[in-house]
C-alpha cells in the first residue's frame, strides 16, 4: 500500500517549535513524546490547536509519555502523531511506500513566532537532513547502516529494490506556499526563471521527486484552490499577508469550481464592487457571490516554466491545492505532451481534475477519512473510492492510495459513529494477511473503534476497517489498495521515461 501524502518531518518545520514531539529521539520515546510547556494551558500551541483541531485548550491534562491520556488523539494536530514505532506497525500491515512531504509556511510561522523571519526553502533543506537522521536512527536499532526497515528512495528503481527486501520506501516531496521563494506581490513575481531552474536542480540533488507548485496562497506560479468554511476565512487572511490581495473570484459557469467561501452574499458583493461587474468579487473585501465560484488566477507564465521544467526532470506534479484554472492549464500541458507524472494525493482537487489525472495515467489517493459514518460533511474514504472507481476514468485506476496528511493541519480519521454497533473486531487480519491485536504504547492501549486513527500505528487497524466496511466491494478495494504502491511507482517510471 502507499500513503501518498504524509508529513513525517513536520516537527522540523514551522520554526521548529510549533509542534510538540518528534518521530524519534536519541533518548527514545520518553524524550520524543514528552509534554511541551508551549502546549499546556493558555499558551500559543494549545490555542492554535484549539482553532484548527477543535481541542480543549483548558484541559489540565497535558500528558505525553507514559500515560498518553491527553494526546495523541485524532485531532491533536500539533502533537506528534507518527512516532516511528507506529510507522513500523503500519509497515508490518502492508504499507510499502510513504510519500513524505517536507512542509513549511512562512506566514503561519512568522505569525506564530511573533515575526521571527522564516525562509521556507531553508526549512525544506533542514527537513531533508532530518529524514536522513531518522533513517540512520532506525538503522542503529537494527544492526547498523542499511539494516533498518525505513529506507529513503530517490528513484523508482530504489523503490523496487526496497520493496524486494520487504522494507518501507520513503519518497520525498515538498508542500509549501512559496516554492523557491516564489511570492507574487501585486501579481509581480519575486523570482525569475533562473531561480526556478536552480531550485529544481537542488530538489533533484536532494532526492525530492514531487512538488506542490501552489499551496494555500496564490503565488508566482498560479492561483490556489480555496480552503472552505472558517478555515477558508483564516487562510484568506494569510493570502492577503502573502500577496497583498484577498482571494478574487469569478462565477464558475463553464468549468470546474473552487470551494465556496463562508462570507457569501450576492447583494453585498455587488455593493462592494460599486456595481461594476468587471471588478472580481473579493478585490475590495472578502465577500463573494453565493453560486459556484472559482479563483480568477490561473497558471502564470512562470508557472508554465516550472511545470515544463519538472517534466524535463521526470518529477511528479501534485495538482491538489491548485485553483480550477491553474489545474486545468497544467493538465492541458500534460495531456498535450502525454506526460503521466501527475498526482492527486489527498482529495484536494475537483472531481473533473481527478478524472483527467487518471486518464493521463496519473495517480490518485483519497484522504484517509473514516471508512464511513463520520460527522460533518467530510466524504468517507470508502465512498470516495467508490466514486472514483465508478467514474468515467475508473477503468484507468490500476491501484489506489490513501493520503494521511499526518502531522499536517488536517485531522486523522475520527471513530466511526456506528463503531459501537459495528466495530472492527480485535484481533483482526490486515489486508496483507498479518494478524494484529490492539496497539499498546506506554500505558495506553489504542482501539480504532473509540480512538479513531489517534496515531500512525492505527493505520494497520484502519486498513482492515475500510475493507470490512466496504462490504461486497471489500475485495475490490483491498486489491486496489494492495496495488497502490505499484501504481505509484509505475506512474513515476513513466514520468522519468518521458524525456
Automatic annotation (TrEMBL):
SUPFAM superfamilies: Metallo-dependent hydrolases. This is Peptidase M19. It comes from Nocardia stercoris.
